[in-house]
Amino acid sequence: MSKFQQFTALHVAGTPLVLFNAWDAGSARAVARAGARAIATGSWSVADAHGLADGEGVPVDLVIANAARIVGAVDLPVTIDFEAGYAADAEGLAANVTALAATGAIGCNFEDGLAGGGLRPAADHAARIAVARKAAGADFFINARTDIFLQAKPDTHDAAKAEDAIARAHAYAEAGANGFFVPGLVDLDLLARVCRESPLPVNAMTWPGAPSNAEFAAAGVARISYGPGPYRIAMQAVEDAARAIYIG
Length: 248
Description:
The chain has 248 residues and is an alpha/beta fold. The protein is built from ten helices and eight strands. The mean pLDDT is 98. An eight-stranded parallel sheet has the order 1-8-7-6-5-4-3-2. It has helices spanning 3-9, 25-33, 43-49, 60-73, 90-102, 122-136, 159-175, 188-197, 213-218, 229-246, and strands spanning 17-19, 39-40, 78-81, 107-111, 141-145, 179-181, 202-205, 223-225. Helix 2 runs parallel beside helix 4, helix 5 (90-102) packs across helix 6 (122-136) and helix 6 (122-136) packs parallel to helix 7 (159-175).
């Protein structure tokens, strides 16, 4: 199988693919040595590692060059957090996705959140997914991310938001997406409903205090991402080691 086919086959509801997100070639190698089946980046981690802001604060050329270095460093499928595509217009989006696919990355996250807050209308984001699909070709895993839950406080997550997410999952699937990412959703009942009614395998994000991986799996999740967590762990370890030297 191709790396794209391998990666796609790892998305199994109830037996999720676990992605301990990397940010550069060195961290990707470390995750690969630990037994990962695929490598994924997190945009926040990549941005912070370069002293830049998340939310497309990293120049797209740097994102693509970083992706190429990661692909060259590991013999695993690599998917890149590509935020909202680093372009507002269809022509720029197509050029960016084409360049990303040319690195050898087999997929990307592609979000419907707007940099200033709020969401793109579902039809607008579906149209952008169609542009990305045409640019990347068939063998490229587009993980369509919705920021419905990430932008709202957990105590406001309700059936209406779940219904909006499910409607977006259907629209994004019709446009050519391969997966559906719902970061921020940790209510297991709502998550289970999204998993049941989504036509795409569902990706959840974990962090300290979130449900366990086993609980996510029981809800029907097919992919679990660790987001910025691994980078924060690594940077805390560096700070602690330095503090022991300088402060004692």
